[in-house]
Amino acid sequence: MEKTLLEETRIGEVLSMGVEMDDNEIGLFIASADVSASCGFRPDEWEKFVEGVKKAHEEYLGNK
User: Fold this and answer.
1) Residue 37 and residue 7: Cα distance in Å, rounded?
2) What is the pTM of this model?
3) Phi then psi for 32, rounded to 5 degrees?
4) How far apart are CA 41 and CA 26, in angstroms?
């Protein structure tokens, strides 16, 4: 069964993202006016991905 974790959300002037989940995969998509990308993660990969994004965000905030 598919579940939406994050409805398609506008995050910039022409950039949007969303996240969906089914029984064994979490799907992330990012789209702009001229290109889009999607990636599927197993639950353990998703956890590591989120940890990596959080770490990168902390670095970003520390370098502002």
Assistant:
1) 16
2) 0.85
3) -125, -175
4) 5
Residue 24 token pair: 């064994």
Residue 3 token pair: 């579940």
Q: List, as one string, the DSSP characters of 12-48.
A: SSS-EEEEEE-SS-EEEEEE-SS-EEEEEE-HHHHHH
- For residue 9, give its domain range: 3-62
| pLDDT 10s digits, 17-51 | 999 999 999 999 999 999 999 999 999 999 999 99
Return d(Cα 33, Cα 28) in angstroms, integer: 17
Number of domains, the chain: 1
